[in-house]
Amino acid sequence: MSDKVRVFWFRRDMRFEDNVGLYHALSGEFPVLPLFIFDKHILDELPKNDARVTFIHDELQKMRSYLQEHHDSSIATYHDTPENAIKQLIEDFEVEAIYTNRDYEPYAQKRDAEINALLAENGIEFHDFKDQVIFEKTEVEKNDGGMYLVFTPYMKQWKKEFEDINFKINPSEDLLNNTYKNTRLPNFSLSDMGFEKSSIKVPDHNFDKDLLRDYDDTRNIPSIEGTSRLSPYLRFGTIGYRKIVKKALSVENKAFLDELIWREFYKAILYHYPETQDRAFKPKYDRIEWRNNEEEFEKWKTGQTGYPIVDAGMRQLNKTGWMHNRLRMVVGSFLCKHLLIDWRWGEAYFAKKLLDYEMSSNVGGWQWVAGSGVDAAPYFRVFNPYSQTDRFDKDKKFIKKWVPEFESDEYPEPMVEHKMARERCLETYKDAVKN
């Protein structure tokens, strides 16, 4: 049994800089034992070469090395269920309290409630903090109370509320000397956990002022580097969210800031309506008679639909673990509207593939293209892949990069005719929602 410690549990906040929960943990009288749990509830569902596991593991080793070199400390890592890992931790150490930052997804809320109960049974406090958003839960509401269900009024209220907050940075990196002094805390390699190093690398991010200033003009063109590539770093919290918001505020063009607000909007929706992770926000849309043809789904997944812009997007996803945001809308609409395949099939496939997968944004985006979510647009919005190509990849640069056989005899014919598919979709949706 060691001397009494506080524990800071890293989850979606894998950094030392401006980390709210870590700052509060380090500000106390007890040394802080850093903790990370490779959660078997999550990892057991993933392929053994999952790129996200490689990314997390690599980032964690960098953090461990930094603490070992500069502060005679480290990070205790466990490969187990959170319940078992915490039980082992409080058996091995005299834990005064566990500190962490809040997560808003349904699984995370259930997990934290169970851990809180477990700690209470052992007389240990559990403290959680807001870190990955500016506003959470009920902090942006209508004047008469209740959640905004349309983005634009939510965004306007978000900006209004933002004017009144104290935009505080938490210098947690300055307090790291208060970490627990032990460089040989438990650690797991990828192979220890049954994983192997992925060949997919998370690309470097870019959010300099030039990109942010031109973001509204460049973000829809998939053939250029017009997006920040920040999303995986945001997802795992390797960069502080407040730093990103502060940078977004430093330019006159607020398009990038609006995208960050979309992220918070979808988090709030999922928090208030957790059932929407697998049910339509508008219940009548669960009556849609999906065709769910598995052979057609396979063609969509592998980028063999005969629609070049759709195929290019899917091949980019399969090869790199990332897809341009404009194309996420195009391929999603194609799956739901052209093929009449349930949006949940597409959401689950993206969950397996996307380096930046966040349930709230992914579910929100898929329900948006399916027409079943909070978006006010009517169900008869059907993206035309040809007009989308003309608008956003007119010279076919992106298509030719990812579909080299395009315009050759090797490229398949369109698996469905656009006009027919659109009419079939509208009729099917109309039948589902008419009552």
TrEMBL record:
Highest taxon in the source lineage: Bacteria
Cofactor dependence is on: (6R)-5,10-methylene-5,6,7,8-tetrahydrofolate; FAD
Domain Photolyase/cryptochrome alpha/beta stretches: 4-134
Q: Which InterPro entries does this entry report, sorted A to Z? A: Crypto/Photolyase_FAD-like_sf, Crypto/Photolyase_N_sf, Cryptochr/Photolyase_FAD-bd, Cryptochrome/DNA_photolyase_1, DNA_photolyase_1_CS_C, DNA_photolyase_N, Rossmann-like_a/b/a_fold
Q: Which Gene3D superfamilies match?
A: 1.25.40.80, DNA Cyclobutane Dipyrimidine Photolyase, subunit A, domain 3, HUPs
The answer, when asked if Flavoprotein is one of the entry's keywords, is yes
The UniProt entry's sequence similarity note says: Belongs to the DNA photolyase family.
Name of the featured protein = DNA photolyase family protein
Coiled-coil region: none
Q: Which UniProt keywords apply?
A: Chromophore, FAD, Flavoprotein
- What species was this sequence derived from? Psychroflexus longus
